[in-house]
Amino acid sequence: MHPIIRQVLRKLSRNRVLTKRLPSEFGRGLVYCSPEALLSSWKPGWQSTQAKGLLRWVKRFVQPGMRVWDLGANQGIFSLAASACAGPDGRVVAFEPDLFLVDLIRRSLASGTHLGAPVQLLPIAVSGSACIAEFQIAKTDRALNHLSSAKGNPRAGDARERVSVICQSLDWLMSQLDKPDLLKIDVEGAELALLEGGTQLLQEARPILILETAPEHVRAVAELLHGLDYSFYEVDSPLTDALQEPAWNSLVWPNERATDLASLRQRISTQ
What's this model's pTM, rounded to 2 decimal places? Predict the structure, then answer.
C-alpha cells in the first residue's frame, strides 16, 4: 500500500468502529472492531492476514472444554472465536490494557451473540510482576501498543499517548483463576518478562502456548522454555520438526504430552 494512502486511511480510522460477524464455524457472533486497532480491519469480512491467522490458530488448537487465556487480546477476535470452539464447558479470559480496545470487546460480549464458553475480560497488562507501568498507545495500529519497558515493534511509530496501566504476573493470576490449558501470548516485546513471571504456572499447569517472540528475546525465551521441558514448532507448520529456538509465531508444547501432539498432527492433516 502506498504510504500516502496508508496515512489517509489511518486518519479516517480514528474512533471508527465497524461490526462484523465471525464465520459460521465460530458461531456467527457479532464483533465490534476498528481499523484504528488494525488498519486491515477495513477489508471486508476476515480477509486480512492477521485475522485469518488468529482464526486458523483457534481452529487448530482450541478444543471443547479448554480454558484459554488470551494475553494481548486487542479487539478480541481470538477470544471470541475461542469461546465458540471451547463451548459451554470451556472458559476464556481476555487480557487487554488499552481501554479503547477493552470497550470494543465489551460491546461484542454485550451483543449476546457469543453462546460458547463464558469470556472474562480483564483490563490489565500481564508482565513479570505486580506494578503500575507506563503503556504506549501506538501512533499507527493499536495492535502495536506496548509497555514502555519493552522495545516494541518499530512499526508502532511514536506514541500518540502514554497511559498508566496495572500489571500482574502469570503466577499471581493462577492463584485467582482456573489454570489455563492454552495461552495465546502477543504482548509486543514483553513476552520474556511475562514468561519469567509465570514459571510456577508453566511448571504446574503445563499449558500449550501460542507465542509471538521478538527477535531480541529469541535466545532467552528458548533457554527459559527448554529449561521447563517445552519444545518449539512453527505455528502454521505440520508440527513434525521441532525448532531449536522460537519462530516469530511458535506453538510451544510440553514434552511429556507427545501422544497429544501426535493426535493434533493427525487432526491437522485432515483439516
Answer: 0.96
